[in-house]
Structure to design on (146 residues):
């Protein structure tokens, strides 16, 4: 599926792979990378990894999609949180892959409506669309007060 019209292109440059460095073209993101100890790496303090960066992007994008879904449904949201857990591990075919668990909390909305909004956001979110059918994505929805 092709983009009909591209509004924005993000640019990042990595050097050194999982134990290297990543910068964005505007230099706002300028971080060291380190393979976590759980994956056999050094787990350098103060460094991040591709899975954390993916979790940050997916959770922020999903919350934006949730805002769109809520606006379309005429629901006012406040104090929403989206927490992404990106798992890394071996696949059945002996390769490696990732999984995503999104924990969405929508305070002051009843559970059924919150779940409907999360499903709608999952249909809207570009990260969800990109991962659909490619990785396991699990959604959980709560309505706990902030």
């Amino acid at each position: 599926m092709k983009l009909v019209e591209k509004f924005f292109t993000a640019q990042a440059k990595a050097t050194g792979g999982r134990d290297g460095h990543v910068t964005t073209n505007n230099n706002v993101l300028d971080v060291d990378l380190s393979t976590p100890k759980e994956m056999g790496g050094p787990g350098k303090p103060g460094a991040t990894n591709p899975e954390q960066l993916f979790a940050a992007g997916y959770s922020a994008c999903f919350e934006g999609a949730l805002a769109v879904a809520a606006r379309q449904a005429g629901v006012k949201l406040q104090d929403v949180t989206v927490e992404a857990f990106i798992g890394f591990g071996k696949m059945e075919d002996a390769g490696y892959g990732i999984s995503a668990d999104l924990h969405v909390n929508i305070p002051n909305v009843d559970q059924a409506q919150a779940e409907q909004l999360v499903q709608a956001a999952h249909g809207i979110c570009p990260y969800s669309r990109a991962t659909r059918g490619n990785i396991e994505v699990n959604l959980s929805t709560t309505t706990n007060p902030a």
About this structure: The first strand starts at residue 12 and ends at 15. The chain is about 30% helix and 25% strand.
